[in-house]
Here is the input.
Amino acid sequence: MPTLIADIAYHNKAVIYDILFKAAAETMLTIAADPRHLGATIGITAVLHTWGSAMTHHPHLHMIVPGGGISRDGQRWIACPANFFLPVLVLSKLFRRLMLEKLAAAHVAGKLQFFAGHAHLARPGAFAAVLAPLRKTKWFVYSKRPFAGPKAVLVYLSRYTHRVAISNSRLITANETCVTFKVKDYRIEGAGRYKTMTLGIAEFIRRFLIHVLPKGFHRIRHYGLFANGSRAEILARSRELLAVTAHRVETDAPAQGNAQEPTLLVCPCCGGRMIIIETFERGCRPHHRPSASCSTIRIDTS
Here is the structure.
């Protein structure tokens, strides 16, 4: 996002990050559905990142998107060309328009708050005047194929899904006054891009806390073919059209004679494997990690 919008997001994280998700997903789904480009419904898994290497505020989305989708009539799988998915120039223009439209609508609805140097933006005319130049500047959407294959992309992104701003491996030293850590200079290619940075304790903590999300905010979201409502049925249809079978999770237990294989249980929400750790009768206390004695059983589904 442009620097101005990122600055406004400091005090409006839930609203603006949500707009970022919606505008980006709508952009991808709209352009992919256009017969002039792909003409198919695609699936998207989007992950929000708010930091740069030096823990500065840099809100952006990473998206994993299959190289194709289901036709509008649902009868065939449409694959994209080997070295091309969707035109980034078209994506960037639509993304810019949707972001600015949704920001303006949020302002009219009174969902945005402004403080200090941005307090004047609470006035409709001032906010519109600030957004006007952004309609003419270039907004960049970056798209590339996975160089090492789809699995490598999943491995790469999985490192960031449950981490905030910095990992322990990047920390070098820390004392009562400062913290030194590794940073990456993206303007430099090769080994020389890795440098060190030292920040005072207060500044290090300030930068880290910038990236703490509002309570309950979902930083991983799924759209299109991957939307939670009908994902299982759509993925089954996708496999049928692609003539592939679902991935089978192998068990560690060796086969014994002609014993029947255990049924693989799949979570209806995330599609992951479910493992039974215990089956107990109604009114009985579980033995696996037993809780303190109580008169009634409480089941926490959170």
Confidence is low (pLDDT under 50) at residues 249-261, 294-302. The chain has seven helices and eleven strands. The first strand starts at residue 40 and ends at 41.
